[in-house]
């Protein structure tokens, strides 16, 4: 009937006769009459709907329910218009029935819904500002007003979204005139309120989950426990809410999504802190149960954190961030603006997730640190027992192996490596502490045992599936091995190491030369060491009068300038020849050349012989020490410098004939540098108070160091007196006037 009526009216409106009749009677044409009839019908329908639903309703919650009913009716009315009436009116009468209905309904919905929502969220803001909610009904209302799935406002939001979506087939001008085109903005405060409540609710759920978690695997096929599953379930719930929200404004949706992801990342960090505290508390219950190293609960706790971290990494995928960014390019008209907005948001999301992953990695590191700190005492006890007994099994077999075996089976490979690295660093620190604490009390065999334990520990930690050997042999390990390499040696061997360092130092160009010594040295077939001191030249000493510290004193400078015109003073030189370390050559004599007065070069041409077999161990590791000195009367002789020759480098000749002798050596005479530069001396100094050989040696060489540090420490050590080992008969140093007289006598 409607179709036939509309076709008839369409024919009449197109008839010229009908048009003239209507114009003569001043009546409206059929087009206007039908359009007014449609609007009157829609108006009547709307008024009846309002009267039926809203009359006598004053309660806010009831109003929300009634408005939901109204939006349901409006959606159904527009759907019927789209499906049934619009095609008839448009095909038979060319009337845009759907456009009229859609605009009328949406423009009426705007003043019906929007003020109600503003009233609700103003009340929420006022309540949030005061922070006081004493009425249980008010508290329940706040929860209902949050834009939560299943709440009344959520249903209202969904209904308006459905009505808005029906207008997507309308022309652009109709969509722009729609009363619900910005419906989502009416709910923005609700979304923010939901996010706030969701954050609080999420943390409460996570807290309860961690408290109830016994850190037992959920089943035999996984290695994480219930709290990790609960935390992930919360993430899934937020994701589902976001997908159902389907916020229509793309750019504003990106802003909201940043907030959503940020809250989830904070919840993940919150979970890590709770879990670390729980594991800490659980470990305290086991600390008195013998040598408890690692428990299964600790492994499960770390796996839980790793599991939640994996979910954080996948958040952009779960929330379809890429699809959202692609929509920006489609919805923004200006291509350049769309590209800029997409690029900025992509950078924001990338930084957010990257920062969250870094925080989670830091939380895992904190978790590992917390566990290692708890077990440090057990490791230290096992290490101390192993060192005292020189038995690595007391540490590796009884303490480390059970715990590391459990970790290998329970942890992911990455987390197992994290623990190994942290444990290895802690073990190295404990070894250093034990070494330093016992350096002055223990003998070389003790440190030999510590050295063996450290070597065994390296092999233990670098087994297949463990640390990479290059990673384990870090700077701290190398430093410890070097320190133990010295401490495990007897003092005589350390003295030999010192002379080895002096021999190598002589080759450096940066070392100042105090002169040159020419000599010949060789072994014979009859087990003799022949040393011929030939000549010394270009000898330099610091001063003719006074000690090293007073070499630039006013008196010495005046004497030099007055008596010699600035020329260097002459040297009464001689060379002392000895085998070192002296303890390895107890029967070897110390030889001295004759004194060459005021001679430079000084020609000695003296030969000394030692009975030695070059194959003996001590000979292979021993040294020939040649000390150049200046003879002084009535006081200590002045040390000019020294040269060191390794006996292992001395050649063997078939006979003592001149033709068979090796070429003459030209040795640079040097003084020891800074005392701190010799690693062997650092180990000897640790034994000064307990080792006679070390203290005696340090006493002999203390005056040879220009920095004076070793001399000061020698004076503070009982039984050690600084000064040169060679004294002139007078014993005490002369007064200043005597020094001047002696210096003047030398110049005559």
TrEMBL record:
It holds the Pfam family MUN. It is found in: Cytoplasm; Late endosome; Recycling endosome. GO terms for biological process: exocytosis. Its main location: cytoplasm. Residues 722-748 have a biased composition (Basic and acidic residues). One of its GO terms (cellular component) is late endosome. Keywords: Cytoplasm, Endosome, Exocytosis. Residues 154-275 form the MHD1 domain. PROSITE patterns: C2, MHD1, MHD2. Residues 708-748 are annotated as: Disordered. Residues 390-498 form the MHD2 domain. Residues 513-660 form the C2 domain. InterPro entries: C2_dom, C2_domain_sf, MUN_dom, Munc13_1, Munc13_dom-2, UNC-13_domain. PANTHER family: UNC-13-4A, ISOFORM B. Belongs to the unc-13 family. This is Protein unc-13 homolog D isoform X4. It comes from Hirondellea gigas.
């Amino acid at each position: 009937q409607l179709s036939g009526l509309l076709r008839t009216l369409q024919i009449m409106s197109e008839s010229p006769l009908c048009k003239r009749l209507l114009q003569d009677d001043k009546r409206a044409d059929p087009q206007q009459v039908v359009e007014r009839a449609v609007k009157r019908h829609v108006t009547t329908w709307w008024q009846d709907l309002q009267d039926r639903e809203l009359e006598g309703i004053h309660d806010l919650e009831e109003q929300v329910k009634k408005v939901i009913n109204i939006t349901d009716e409006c959606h159904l009315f527009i759907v019927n218009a789209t499906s049934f009436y619009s095609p008839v009116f448009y095909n038979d009468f060319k009337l845009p029935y759907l456009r009229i209905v859609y605009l009328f309904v949406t423009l009426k919905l705007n003043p019906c819904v929007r003020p109600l929502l503003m009233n609700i969220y103003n009340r929420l803001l006022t309540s949030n500002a005061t922070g006081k909610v004493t009425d249980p009904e008010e508290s329940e209302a706040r929860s209902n007003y949050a834009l939560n799935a299943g709440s009344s406002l959520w249903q209202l939001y969904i209904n308006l979204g459905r009505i808005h979506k029906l207008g997507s087939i309308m022309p652009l001008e109709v969509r722009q005139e729609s009363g619900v085109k910005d419906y989502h903005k009416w709910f923005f405060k609700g979304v923010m309120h939901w996010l706030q409540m969701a954050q609080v609710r999420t943390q409460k759920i996570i807290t309860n989950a961690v408290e109830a978690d016994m850190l037992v695997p959920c089943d035999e096929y996984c290695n994480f426990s219930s709290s990790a599953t609960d935390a992930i379930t919360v993430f899934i719930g937020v994701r589902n809410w976001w997908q159902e929200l389907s916020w229509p404004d793309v750019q504003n949706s990106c802003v909201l999504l940043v907030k959503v992801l940020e809250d989830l990342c904070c919840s993940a960090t919150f979970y890590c802190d709770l879990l670390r505290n729980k594991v800490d508390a659980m470990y305290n219950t086991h600390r008195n149960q013998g040598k408890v190293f690692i428990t299964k609960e600790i492994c499960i706790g770390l796996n839980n954190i790793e599991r939640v971290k994996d979910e954080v990494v996948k958040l952009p995928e779960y929330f379809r961030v890429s699809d959202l960014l692609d929509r920006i390019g489609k919805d923004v008209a200006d291509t350049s603006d769309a590209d800029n907005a997409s690029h900025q948001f992509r950078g924001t999301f990338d930084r957010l997730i990257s920062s969250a992953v870094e925080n989670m990695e830091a939380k895992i590191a904190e978790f590992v640190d917390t566990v290692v700190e708890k077990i440090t005492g057990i490791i230290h006890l096992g290490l101390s027992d192993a060192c005292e007994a020189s038995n690595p099994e007391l540490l590796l077999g009884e303490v480390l192996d059970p715990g590391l075996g459990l970790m290998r089976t329970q942890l992911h490979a990455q987390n197992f490596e994290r623990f190994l690295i942290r444990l290895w660093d802690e073990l190295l620190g404990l070894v250093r502490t034990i070494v330093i604490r016992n350096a002055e009390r223990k003998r070389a065999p003790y440190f030999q045992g510590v050295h063996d334990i450290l070597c065994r520990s390296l092999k233990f930690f670098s087994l297949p599936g463990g640390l990479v050997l290059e990673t384990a042999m870090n700077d701290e390990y190398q430093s410890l091995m070097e320190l133990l390499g010295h401490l495990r040696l007897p003092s005589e061997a350390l003295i030999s190491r010192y002379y080895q360092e002096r021999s190598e130092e002589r080759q450096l160009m940066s070392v100042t030369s105090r002169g040159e010594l020419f000599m010949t040295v060789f072994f014979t077939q009859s087990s003799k060491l022949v040393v011929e001191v030939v000549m010394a030249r270009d000898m330099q000493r610091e001063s003719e009068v006074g000690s090293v510290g007073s070499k630039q004193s006013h008196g010495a400078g005046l004497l030099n300038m007055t008596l010699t015109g600035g020329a260097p003073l002459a040297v009464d030189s001689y060379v002392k020849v000895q085998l070192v370390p002296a303890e390895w050559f107890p029967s070897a004599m110390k030889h001295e050349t004759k004194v060459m007065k005021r001679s430079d070069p000084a020609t000695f041409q003296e030969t000394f012989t030692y009975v030695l077999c070059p194959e003996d161990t001590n000979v292979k590791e021993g040294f020939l020490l040649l000390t150049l000195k200046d003879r002084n009367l009535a006081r200590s002789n002045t040390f000019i410098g020294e040269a060191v020759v390794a006996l292992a480098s001395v050649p063997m000749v078939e006979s003592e004939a001149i033709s068979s002798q090796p070429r003459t050596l030209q040795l640079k005479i040097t003084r020891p540098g800074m005392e701190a530069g010799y690693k062997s001396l650092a180990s000897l100094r640790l034994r000064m108070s307990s080792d006679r050989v070390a203290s005696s040696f340090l006493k002999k060489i203390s005056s040879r160091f220009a920095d004076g540090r070793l001399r000061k420490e020698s004076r503070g050590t009982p039984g050690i007196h600084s000064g040169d080992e060679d004294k002139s008969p007078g014993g005490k140093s002369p007064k200043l006037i005597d020094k001047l007289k002696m210096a003047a006598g030398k110049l005559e």
